[in-house]
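Protein modeling request. Please complete all fields; requests missing the sequence field cannot be processed.
Requester role: graduate student
Desired output: 3D structure, token encoding
Chains: 1
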Amino acid sequence: MRCVVYNPMQASYWGRLTLILTAFVNAQIIALPGTKVRPHAFQPPQDTVHSERYRKFIIYEWHAAETEFSNSSCGVTIAIDTKFVHSRFHQVFSPPDELQGRGGAIVCEKGDSSFQMVIMCLYLPASGTAAFLRTCDTKLFEWAQSVLNKVTAKARVYLLTDANARVGLQLVGREWKFQTPRHIGPIDREQCNINGECLSKFIAANELCLVNTFISDGCSSKTYFGWGGSQSRIDYVAIRCRHLGNVSKCEIWRRTARTLQLAKVPQIRDHAPLVITEKQNFSMTGPRRVVWNFDLLRRSPDNVARARSFVAAVENWISEENISERLQYLALDKQVDDSWLLLSSGINSNAEVFQKPSYSPKFLPSDLTLFNRSWRQFACEKREEHFVCLRGHPELIVENLSAILNSWLWTERFQYWDKRLGESRRHDRQDWKRHWDWQLNEAIAHNKSGEAWKISQKIAGTGLTRHRRFVGHVSPSAPSTQVWSQFLQKHGTLGGAQAKEIATEIATETLPFADVLDHLAAENQSYVTIGGGRGAFAFANSSVPNSILKARSEQHIALKAIQEANDDLERFCLGVKNSTTGKAVPAWSVPAEVWKLLLLGWPDVRTCAAVKKCVWLFFLALRRAQCPPIRWNVSQAIAISKFNGLSGCEAQRLIHLLDPAGKNWMKEIWREQVCCKPTWSFGFAKHRRREQPLMQHRIIQHRALKAHFHWGFRKYDVKNAFGSIAWNALDNTVLKRAYDPENSQLIRARYRRAFMILDGSEGKQVLLQNGTGCFPGDGSAPDLFSESFDDTIENWTAKCEMLVHWLKLPPLTIENTTTGMLHKEATTTFADDLGRALIFFTVQDVKDQIAAWDYSLVYELKKINLVPNQTKTKIVLSTWSPEIIKELSLVADDFLRDSLKTRVKYLGGYLDWKGDLSCEVHERLQAASRAWKAFGSFWSRSAVQQKIRISVFKAVVRTTLLTGLEAVALSREMIHLLETFQNKHLRKLLCGGACIKKEVITESGEKKLIFHALSNATVRKQLGVHTVFSELSMRRVRWLQQMVRFPRDSSSTLAILQDSFLWESEPPIGAYTGKLHISANPWTKQFYGDLQRLAKVDAEFDLLWKRECWWSIYSESFIKVRASKIRSFLDYDFDEFSVCTHETLCSGMSRLQPYIVTEKSVQQSVISTASAVSEAMAKDKVSDDDMGSWMQMPVPPNGPPRKAAKQQQGQDIASTLTVSGSGGSGGGGKGGKSKGLGKGKGQASNTRLVKAALNLDARLRIVEGILNDAVEVPDTLGEAQAAVAAGPAYYETVQAMGRGHSLGPPHLRVWAEFIKSLKAAADIPMQLAFELGEHAASCPDYVALARYVRHFTARRHHDKSMIVISVSLSEKLADLWHAVKTYLISKGAKQHIGPPPRGPIFRELAAENM
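Delivered output (1410 residues):
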């Protein structure tokens, strides 16, 4: 065993770390202090240590940090050979936060503390004041002492340090043995520093000794390092004093140091690795695992011979052992467990040809490599023999001159074979890389994404999986068998499963299921009554309903069992055929590929008829006993990390491996009956996506705020839902599906007689029986749980709807006009993730709804043994009213205050308080960046073909980038960010090919190199990658095709895209025309734009689109059209379509600026508003009544009936405020500035007050669609002159009336005069005159007019011959303005693009419409 301590000076990136580990590949323990490593991209924020795998090593990295005793040059890393100490025995210990990066420790324990080992790495400071050094050393060694106190005195200790310590002078030979104290070797007090003193005290206190080169007799390469002008030893390995005799060698690898040092110079300037070798070689390996080589089970010409020999071996075994006759007798005796044990054990023993060792290398060595390795080992042994002779008799060196010469000779031969071995290994790696490239091409060509991911991991050497999870993280504390047993015996709501311990393994080398399962099988037979036989199954749980126990006559059993056995054989073959390949299986079973080979055969391999007969006999025994074999109900539980920052069992997630034979057979029985899922349930349902509920809630938020309602969302989480649901709830779901009594009994026996075998950290195993829930890995478990859970949520939803009706709140109910179904869109579920939207008018509405929801949910979930997780229950609110903000700041209810958030993560996406979707795009960009970094130097590796790199980029980075963005309404800025990210990384894939070098000759005749960068379009075309915009557009069309193809499964999503709620006046899509309404939500606009682009590509769909528009999606032409046509079409015209499509795509969402509703922000907003009011009152002496009118929010025009009293009392802020002195508001002179107001001494501060008030109004107001437009009218037109003259007249009236006027804002007065002059014109069209009259009648005062006219100015052009009229109107006046504009154009007016409203008051309002 070798231990290495080496300060690399820097190992902060993956390439440097892998280079170091490759150099020390023959070592078992490697410690690297001073790595300067930073937090890993996949490391949870709360963790101080990150672990990952590289080849045979598992690596633990403690990153550097800027603290009191640490800096950026710290950081330690420990790498352990998993063949030497398996990772399941590791427990990680980190120093305090102030010492982050100064140390790290791993404690390995096996059995009942019978063997323990501590591996610790320390990095002491190199410089600083004496007080700093002594304090840091004291704290660091106190932490190290706390780690050693957790192990026994017999534990082996390996303390590997870069101590920056001087403990004495260097002596030669064995003189160190006669020095005192012995634990540190030679010592000189004059040469000892502070680190050396602290180190020597720690060593003496724990009976350790410092191993260094001075213990090696005759060693000429001492451990020296230059520091401060002196030579001293600073790298040490400390072990127990009683284990010092096992150290056979301590040496310095100077050649490796020269290779690894950062400065590429011949001399060694950095640290040199200190390596010690122990004679005793012990290991803590994990349990034996059965690993199947699925490459050998794949249908390929290379595996045909092996498959034929396997089928022949099984046939010989059946015929020689008389398996058929023995199965017949067992079937007559109803011995189902013995039947399955006989059949599966024989097939398992013959299938060992498809197994591979537990720890297989990354690639297999060639014959030349094995030959060089054997000769290198032989030369090494010969060299060691001669060195041992010299060490044993150092005084006879002259007499043993021949031994010295032979040692040098064998050393030379050893170096020769070592060089040959390195060359052969390098050739092997290149050959395997070419083989992996070929395999990756084959996997991509056959659309096998899973295999492509695995091969990409091998090529890149990363642990990133296809689900963007990083493999290799180890929990800081691995639970033992006893801890697992106690945890799973808890109630389901506490994380357990009310399990019952059946047996615990005593011997550490044997597996319990060999004998224990046989005992359970014998016990299982006693549950079948002798007389009744069929159906008399006595469950372990006494609460089984009596309807399960149904006995049949013996004659009926014999007749029906034969027919049911035939059906079971067909189910079994169908289940094996449809099974997923490459799935892990328990140690006592064989993969589904083996059954598929025997029962269905391969194209070049015949089926085995004898196996089919044996399987039929087994199912005959199963049907006669009406009881499945106990091994089908036993799972091998595998614990994986949750990445939740917890420790112990709560940090682990159990994955259950079940026998694929029973799993596939039971799945086919379950599929015989189908249950229709509610439209609001999206988990484990065909043709329903995870993004649908998230998109629905975003659309509800947009449309509710647009209707001047206040919106909220409540997210619920259920504790340990799968493992703690009651069996009675599952029984009701099975009975509701109306299976046959026999099949119903078998399905219920699947979860009521469920066992699990679990491995502990000490290597033991425990057998437990579940008391609640079902196995998540079973085929019927997802549907079984979701249907039971949905029944409960349906009752809860009905109570919530009754509460909404009682409070007289707007219901979130919508009718799908195509299917006629009425959908309640408020509630959505995905498995156990529950969310519900709410509409409210006051804070009391929120409190009433949340309190009632929480109480009723707890009541309903209690019926099925579930409890909501209050710590993960969150709520987000969007409001625009300052009154509600004030009330929320005074809320004292803990249930509302603690769960109130500005952003809630639901189903992988975010629901923001203001409807901001940019956070979703930034989250995708960060995830894609982490995926790119995880593959390291693979992207720039010249040995890998460019085609392979592009394929991996599409499968890894691009898929991560675009995941879930189909359900996001993307703006131009978001598209730009995504395109920039893709183009940036595509240029990196070209490895410098994105820049063209061209040589030109200047006028003087000199040659000059000009570098020209390729355009983004050229780069994409060269690499064959489409734009992000075109890819997302194609995906949305495909998604829409799937929803239309299965309208019942996506009826609620289609309804919210195309239909209106009961409280809305107009739907997003015209009921008869199919055209898009101007007020449609951005998601509908986005899908509508995709359909427009699709019509430009497909001629047949284009004809239908022109006639029916949106309703053409329900035709066969749309379903059959190829959506991939859009992708190629948009690659050439991307700029054009991105402008026209995304100009107003998110205008509705960007206009929504509700206040952030949290305790802190509410207080800040109220304080800032109150301070502004106080300041204005101090300057202008504003009365209390004026302050109250300022703070009052205008009531929505379409408010609820019960708010009528408040509507009458409230006044519009536009009618109570004084005039605004901002430019562009009136029609007075150049620039719209006023000359009448603002010059007076007392009016200047009043103007600032009005400006601040209107700014507050503009921020708080939730506007509808705004139409910005502008026309240039000739100066001779009387209507324009009247509008220009209205501005000065307005301000003169204000000066005369004073502050108490009721004229309203100036732009409304200018608009009124303009409309009055138009109506009085002689040549105005009759239709326009009629519309103007209706408009004047509908707006009798300025309060009513303020709802429709947002901005209106009339100013003279700089050439004095034209008058520029700019207008910003509500969408309800769009038709009227169009008629007015037509009339003005007939009078010589010119139309141009409408500029945004001018002035600081309306600048923010205009920005919301961009």
